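queue> pop job 88
queue> type: inverse folding (structure -> sequence)
queue> payload:
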């Protein structure tokens, strides 16, 4: 499981030129799943994303989590995080989890997040446009 975490001032998902979901300050999470992912990994990743101290405190140090600052999360499924472009010029997605299983894990991940924080999502398998303002910029890849 890979999650690309971006600290954002705002973020939104656009589908068919219509705004689908929006957040203000918080985290944009791009989430990819692979073949050996499990519920145990989900629990670890939810805890990590919620408690990751990448927001600044009063002294300008990254000491606060998205929970501490009252932020939101925009969660978007992103199978291309498991794209491999090491051979040739066309990426292979053989390491990405099969769509039905990935959708189940994505929905469960979002359900677990929503118990602790306000969350918005993209639509699994849809072509989406993302608009966001990365704050910092702060971007981290987390893998479990």
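queue> result:
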């Amino acid at each position: 499981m890979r999650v690309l975490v971006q600290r954002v001032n705002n973020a939104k998902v656009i589908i068919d030129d219509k705004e689908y979901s929006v957040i203000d300050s918080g985290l944009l999470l791009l989430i990819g799943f692979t073949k050996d992912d499990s519920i145990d990994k989900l629990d670890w990743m939810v805890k990590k994303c919620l408690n990751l101290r990448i927001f600044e405190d009063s002294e300008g140090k990254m000491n606060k989590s998205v929970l501490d600052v009252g932020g939101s999360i925009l969660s978007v499924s992103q199978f291309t995080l498991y794209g491999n472009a090491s051979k040739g010029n066309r990426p292979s997605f053989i390491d990405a989890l099969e769509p039905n299983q990935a959708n189940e894990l994505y929905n469960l991940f979002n359900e677990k997040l929503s118990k602790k924080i306000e969350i918005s999502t993209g639509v699994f398998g849809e072509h989406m446009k993302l608009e966001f303002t990365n704050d910092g910029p702060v971007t981290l890849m987390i893998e479990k």
